[in-house]
Every structure is written in structure tokens, then in C-alpha cells.
Design goal:
mainly alpha
Amino acid sequence: MEKTTLLGIILGFACIAIAISIDGSILSFAHLPSAFIVIGGTLAATIVSYPGKMLKSLKTVYTNAFKKKTIDLNADIDLVIHIANIARREGLLALEDAIGEIDNPFLQKGIMLIVDGADTELVKSILQTEISFVQERHGQGQAIISSMAGYAPAFGMIGTLIGLINMLKDLSNVDALGPGMSTALITTFYGVVLANLVFAPIAKKLKSQSDSENLQKELYMEGLLSIQDGENPRIIKDKLTSFISRREIRKEDDGAGKEVSEIVEE
């Protein structure tokens, strides 16, 4: 589980709760009708906006935001270089035996295409198409959450208007104006908090995860195409290193793994 996502949400609500408690009471911010308007209205608008097929994936989309997904591009480069060394020593057909050591479906698919004798352009086209489809699928989930981030404040305002209308119906009762105004504004408060502490951050988290996965796939594709073209593993490593920022590049003398001379065969 990705603890930072849950920790961030809890920390945000905790800070708001503490700020409220300093000068007031948390219970004064508890208002069931306001929560019903914001949450119910947001869900209803989302249902109207998207087809049922997309909405069925909503639970999975939220679950992905809390899943821990670690992508180590340095380790990915080492894996590609390992595959390149096998292909250089034993030929492309020998890569079929290496598939069992790989748990990434995208990389497995690329290797199988090479082993089956597909030409470079076909391999590139198939892998690029898969990357595009994954991007589109991820984008749909992000769009749903982003829409909810937009709907929540809007329904918060609707709740506020409802509260103000009810309050203005009885202006003769001066003592009720203050509490009535407070209750009306709670709905906007709910909408803004949900949008900026839950929906919008989760949408950004999903986009960050998607960008990392796409970068990994592009790295794999570039490596596989280079292997198919028979390039030297050292040249492939130099090429793939450009996919990561300089601060992420592992130093050759660190203790995390083999030295470059051991990883890349002459």
C-alpha cells in the first residue's frame, strides 16, 4: 500500500480539525444535509457525465492511487542490458528461454515479437500502440477523478444557495440569521475540502503513476529495438541512461549492485 497517499489525506484532515478546534468546535461543522448534497451531487453528476462502462472502473482507479508502485529505471536498464548480453552471445532465439525470468508483460510481449521474427517497424508499431492504449485507459480514470474535483465545489455552492434561500424566508427571526448563515456556508466548506484534499490530489497521483509507467515502457521499447538491431550492450546502456535524470543515475562505485564493467560485457 502507498502510505504517502493515505498519510497525506489524514494529515490534511487532521490539520483542518486542529485549526477548527483552536477557536471552535468540530461538532459545529458536522452537518448531514450538507454532506448529502456535496457527496450525493458529485456522484450523481459523475454518473451523468460518463458511460457505465467507464464508471465500473472507478473503484479500481481509486484503489490504484493507494497501491505502492515502485519503478526503478536503473534496475530496468540493467535488465535490458542482461537481455542484450544474452542476445549477443547466443542469438535472438535464445531470448525465449529468458522470458520466464521476466515478470513484466510488456517486456515479455516485446521479446516474443523479436523471437517470432517480426521486423523492427512491426515491433515498434505494436509496442507503441499498446503504450497509447494504456495512456488512454489511464487518462479516462484521471478524467473521472478530475471531474469530481470540479463538481464538489459546485455542489457546495448549490448547498449554500439552498441554505441562504431557506434563511431569507424568515428574516423576522434575527437570532436565527447567524446560525443559518453558518450552516449555509458549511456546504461550500465540504465541497472545497473534498475537491482539494481528496479528488484533485488523487487525480494528480494517478497521472504521476501513469507517467512513470509510460516512461518505463518507452525505455523497454527502445532497448528491445536496439537489441533487435544488434547494437552493442554498452551503446544500449548509454542510450537508455538518457531516460532518467542525472541525479537518478546510480554511481558506479556504490554498493547497490555490480559495477558497470560487470553488468555490461565487452
